[in-house]
Each structure stands twice: as structure tokens, then as C-alpha cells.
Design a protein that fits this description.
Layout lengths: L1 E6 L5 H13 L4 E2 L10 H11 E8 L7 H13 L2 E5 L15 E2 L3 H12 L19 H24 L1 H14 L10 E7 L12 H13 L4 E6 L3 H18 L1 E8 L2 E4 L2 E4 L9 H7 L1 E2 H10 L6 E11 L19 H9 L7 H16 L7 E6 L15 E11 L9
Helix pairs in contact: 1-4, 2-3, 5-6, 7-11, 8-10, 11-12
């Protein structure tokens, strides 16, 4: 039997590895999924290992609270009475876990003893008494010290604000909120996939760059973005399932942007992974990832906590048209007409979703002339949405916005 199973988000892998190393140095046997090979048996293997472990250590973070896999593992551990929750940053705990005593663990090397005590079922160690008394500074020196701290802080802020990360972050803030920091009513989650290098069919050169630029634009607007390129079928199913479970559990606004080969058949959206076979009628359906069915399956098995605010799907091209990767063959443009138009439309602060779509449609039609490509839209939201006004996100709702840089048609007759 393993002493400890560690559950964590991919983005926190280095932290999980350090926790595992420190726990092992304390004589505990630890299992974490560094060596686990994903596939059809992944979920059953995880469930088996949780069942065989004495305790389950869940590392809550701003990443893991959005991960349906971590929430599923934490739920299973709580059901079995094995859960030891740990918070590694300033994230808010997910719904249903806020009532549990949670250990703060920012530095595994210095703060691990409370975790070890919880894993072993004993009280946490008391803080050691410090016999040394703090010397009091004269008031004038205290004032001078505070002043120096303020001046240094302002100097650092100014220096960072003019260049580097802070400069770009402040620029994004100014572009999206007119200098006024605003908080989203609920979580904002985005999944961005760009499939460019297909193995058995025509490549889509701009798709990877489209995914990168759209991901950056969404991150600047308060979205927690998961971005991957050249994704194979099993991984696409995993990403989309995780995205849908997170929305179903946490609510908020979810945006899914997909660039690559795709089709819309019989009311269902199907995307083609990069390892799809040669583009025949049968292989496109068999190898494709059916987003619509994944959504329906997950929503049917999730306890309804949030009010469904609806779903809006925006396609790069209408029925009977192809979605262009660039405006002309051999073009050096770095983004597709659809991606370029999305980026332009996102600049306008006051637009709601209908205004956003209108700008996208006009941008695409203008950029591809004299050819024809008209973006299409389907569905609606019950309460409005503004990309650049997160403080106006519909509260206590789950909203889905799907952006397909592909044709709303059957690619058997229309190619991208």
C-alpha cells in the first residue's frame, strides 16, 4: 500500500515533485503520476491507486481548482475518508471543499511538518518559541525605514512598469479596463487548440500561430487559458472533457477556440486531430472528436448547480464556403482572416457578443475580397456577455462561447 497519493494540476508539476521528494525524505512512500502513461485505462488506474493509498494529498492552486480531474480525485478521496487538502497559492477553494480544514503549504522544505502530521493522523507541531525579543526602533528610525521601503517599492514598480512583464501587463490592463482593475463575477476559462501539422492530410500553417495570439488576447481579458497545438485524438478528448467538467463544476464563462480542420454535420461539431487518417468520408467521422457529444455526455452526468446561460457558436465560414488559412496562397500573413478579425474585434471595449460578431464578420468579409467567406453564428446567451467587461459577466451562470476557425459545413464537399 502507498502512504500518499498526490493529486495536482499539470501546471503545478514542479511543486508536486518537490512535495513528493520532501515526503519521501521523511520515510513516506509517495505516488504521483509522473510516470503514468495516459490512455483508455488512465481513469481506472487512478481510481485503483487512490483506493490503495492510505491518504490522498490534494494540492489546491489557481490551476487545480479549475481542473475537473483534480476535483474528481479530491471528491473520491473525500468519499473514502482519505482527503488531506493543501493550498499552495492564494486560490479560492472549489465549491464543496471550503468547509474543510486546509493546510497552507507555500514552501515544502520549511512547512512540510504540518502536512506530515496530517498524513500520520496526529496534531500539527507547535511553533517553536523564540527566546529573542524584537528590539524596538526609535520612532524616527521607524518612519525613515517605512519611507525607504515605499521609495524602493515605487522605484521597482516604475522600472518594471516601463519594460518587461509588468509593462505588458499594465498595457493589457489599460487596453481592457481603461486603467480600472475589474474582477470577473465568476471564473473565466479558455481552451485554445491549434492543429496545424496534420500527418495524413493537408496542413493548416497558420493554425498554431492563431492559437498563440488568441490565447494571449484571452489571457489579457482575465481568462485562465489552456493552449495546445498539434493535438492528437486522445489528448483532444481529454482537454475538452476537462474543460467541460470545469465549467459544469465551477460555472463562469468558458471560451473554446479551435483552429484546424473541422466539420459541422447533423447539428454536431466535429474536429479533426492531427493524427486523423487520410481524409475519406468514413475516417473523418471515425477519427474526429465530436465536441457536441462530449458536452452532452458530461452535462448529463453533472449535478446541476449553475443556471445554464446558453451557448453561442461562431464559425469562420458559412455553409457552402471554405474557411481560409490566409487571404491568398503563399501569403506571409501570420494569422487567418478569422483570427485577425477576432483580434481586431476584441479591442472594442463596449461591444457585447452580438457587436463582437458583427465586427468579426465585417473584418473577414473585407479581408478576403473578392473571394467569399462569411462567418456564421448559432445559438444565443440568455444574459449578455462582454469580453472586455468581466465585471458584467452573468452571475451564478455558466456561459459557453465556441469559436471555430473552420467551415460550418461538410468538408467532404468544402475544403479549408
Amino acid at each position: 500500500m502507498t502512504d500518499v497519493f498526490i493529486s495536482y494540476a499539470r501546471e503545478d508539476r514542479s511543486h508536486a515533485q518537490r512535495v513528493a521528494q520532501v515526503l519521501e525524505s521523511r520515510g513516506l512512500s509517495v505516488w504521483w503520476d509522473w510516470d503514468l502513461i495516459g490512455g483508455s485505462s488512465y481513469r481506472s488506474e487512478i481510481r485503483r491507486i487512490i483506493g490503495e493509498s492510505a491518504k490522498v494529498l490534494v494540492l489546491w492552486s489557481r490551476h487545480s481548482v479549475q481542473s475537473a480531474f483534480v476535483i474528481d480525485e479530491a471528491t473520491e478521496a473525500r468519499k473514502l475518508g482519505k482527503l488531506v487538502p493543501v493550498l499552495i497559492d492564494e486560490a479560492d477553494l472549489p465549491f464543496g471543499f471550503g468547509d474543510l480544514h486546509t493546510i497552507l503549504l507555500h514552501d515544502p522544505d520549511r512547512e512540510i511538518e504540518s502536512v506530515v502530521a496530517a498524513l500520520q493522523g496526529r496534531p500539527p507541531p507547535r511553533a517553536a518559541a523564540n527566546p529573542r525579543k524584537l528590539r524596538k526602533l526609535p520612532i524616527r528610525w521607524s518612519i525613515i525605514a517605512i519611507g525607504l521601503v515605499v521609495v524602493c517599492a515605487l522605484g521597482i514598480y516604475w522600472g518594471l512598469g516601463q519594460s518587461g512583464f509588468m509593462g505588458s501587463a499594465m498595457q493589457n490592463l489599460a487596453q481592457t479596463t481603461s486603467g480600472k482593475p475589474m474582477q470577473a463575477v465568476g471564473p473565466r476559462l479558455a481552451l485554445v487548440i491549434g492543429n496545424a501539422n496534420y500527418k495524413n492530410t493537408i496542413s493548416v500553417p497558420n493554425a498554431a500561430r492563431d492559437a498563440e495570439t488568441i490565447a494571449q488576447a484571452l489571457a489579457a481579458r482575465g481568462f485562465n487559458v489552456i493552449r495546445e497545438v498539434d493535438v492528437e485524438r486522445d489528448r483532444m478528448i481529454e482537454l475538452i472533457s476537462d474543460f467541460e467538467r470545469s465549467l459544469a463544476i465551477n460555472g463562469g464563462v468558458g471560451v473554446f477556440y479551435y483552429a484546424g480542420h473541422g466539420l459541422h454535420m447533423d447539428g454536431e461539431d466535429i474536429m479533426l486531430p492531427v493524427n486523423t487518417r487520410a481524409a475519406t468520408d468514413s475516417s473523418l467521422v471515425a477519427d474526429g472528436v465530436n465536441l457536441t457529444k462530449i458536452q452532452q455526455e458530461i452535462q448529463s452526468r453533472t449535478l446541476r448547480k449553475w443556471i445554464d446561460n446558453g451557448v453561442v457558436s461562431i464559425y469562420a465560414a458559412s455553409k457552402g464556403q471554405g474557411a481560409m488559412d490566409s487571404t491568398a496562397p503563399g501569403s506571409t500573413e501570420l494569422n487567418s482572416p478569422f483570427a485577425q478579425s477576432i483580434l481586431s474585434a476584441l479591442i472594442e471595449r463596449k461591444d457585447d457578443l452580438s457587436g463582437f460578431f458583427q465586427r468579426v464578420r465585417e473584418g473577414v468579409e473585407q479581408s478576403v475580397k473578392p473571394l467569399r467567406q462569411t462567418p456564421d453564428i448559432a445559438g444565443q446567451l440568455r444574459e449578455n456577455f462582454f469580453f472586455n467587461q468581466p465585471d458584467r459577466d452573468p452571475p451564478e451562470r455558466v456561459s459557453r462561447i465556441l469559436l471555430f476557425d473552420a467551415s460550418r459545413d461538410n468538408p467532404f464537399t468544402v475544403s479549408r
